[in-house]
User: Fold this.
Amino acid sequence: MMDANGGELAPAVRSILTAARERAGGDGRVSVDARSFSDALAAAESDGRVPVIAEVKPTSPTTEGRRDDDPVDLARAMVAGGATAISVLTEPEHFGGSTDALERVRAAVDVPVLRKDFIVQESQLDLVASDLVLLIARFVDDLPGLVAAAEARGFQPLVEVHTRPELDRALAAGAELIGVNNRDLARLEVDLGTFESLAPAVPDDVTLLAESGIGSTADVRRMREAGADALLIGSAIMDGDVTDNVRRFTTA
Assistant:
């Protein structure tokens, strides 16, 4: 299977994308009064915290095992550790996520909540309200249209890229929040140099996130020095005491 750029994908990612293309959208149009991510970033910086989006991720194709804690308990523990925002997986088949978990988490915390899923068509935006929504450039055919559709509903779209052509597409689509995924979806290999190579091409007025492969405080410092305004961290936080893990990364 090819992605939106005509490139090959790893088998696990092909399965995810196939399921995403078959997943139904919502019945009605969602309208969101979003919590400001930029305000949350500013608050973290003023408090001397590294801005971290901590991810509630029960499982994934690139991790072993599964964590079955209540998502609300995990999210509250992450906020207690200083998380700037919470990411919640809503992809059910490969990540164990659900829209119900996101709804419950968003009702339980007062920080912005990102919906992390594989959204490929506009109607899938209408499945659940969140403050931010992930749009993966590699999977989306009409990126400008989907960015505009997300913004029209009140979402703050986080456009994920991995290559320079994807970054150029994201900027052309008007993305104001861009995440560089250090994981190559063709081979599932992680290279923090991906962020370092793309960051210089991102305008100063775009908020830039580093995603995937951040497992140590040294990684946090490396990404921040390369220009990351914030970090999205999942597995390294879910492995152990989430409050302590978030605190370790936010004070790196």
